[in-house]
Write a structure and sequence with these properties.
Elements lengths: L15 H21 L3 H11 L3 H8 L9 H10 L30 H4 L6 E9 L4 E8 L4
Antiparallel strand pairs: 1-2
Length: about 140
């Protein structure tokens, strides 16, 4: 039964400087597209200059909730299309945080296994397993104590 909630990943919350960049980028991109015309060839040319696909270009032109372009796209727009940004420090773009490594629990050694010596183990039978690259061992362990 549908819950009424949107499915999928929650959008990332943009920092204030990113909101400014997004607005400036979207406005300047809209101006450029209007100046060049909305023909398929003009849109393709703008997309090639930004090194993005046409679908991404149309997404960036959306007026409601456009996606945040990557910093490389913003930097390319700044260099190739001479877009002006108030705070163009693309080298200070936030870095992705490395994922935390989950530490797996260590398997504890049973106390009686620590007391086994090499002389306490005897191999009774060794048989190769046909379907695998393995060996089946039958062993006898003498426990003292």
């Amino acid at each position: 039964m549908p819950s009424g909630k949107k499915r999928g990943r929650k959008p990332r919350v943009l920092r204030p400087v990113e909101k400014i960049w997004l607005k400036e980028f979207s406005d300047q991109l809209s101006e450029l597209v209007e100046k060049r015309g909305r023909s398929a060839q003009a849109m393709e040319a703008v997309a090639k200059e930004l090194h993005i696909c046409r679908a991404s270009l149309y997404n960036y032109l959306r007026k409601t909730d456009p996606p945040m372009p990557s910093y490389s796209v913003l930097e390319q727009a700044h260099r190739a299309l001479e877009f002006k940004f108030r705070n163009p420090y693309f080298s200070l773009a936030p870095q992705d945080k490395p994922r935390a490594q989950r530490e797996l629990p260590k398997q504890g050694v049973l106390p009686f296994l620590e007391s086994i010596q090499k002389d306490d183990v005897e191999v009774l039978r060794a048989k190769p397993v046909k379907s695998e690259n393995a060996l089946e061992l039958t062993i006898q362990i003498r426990f003292t104590g």
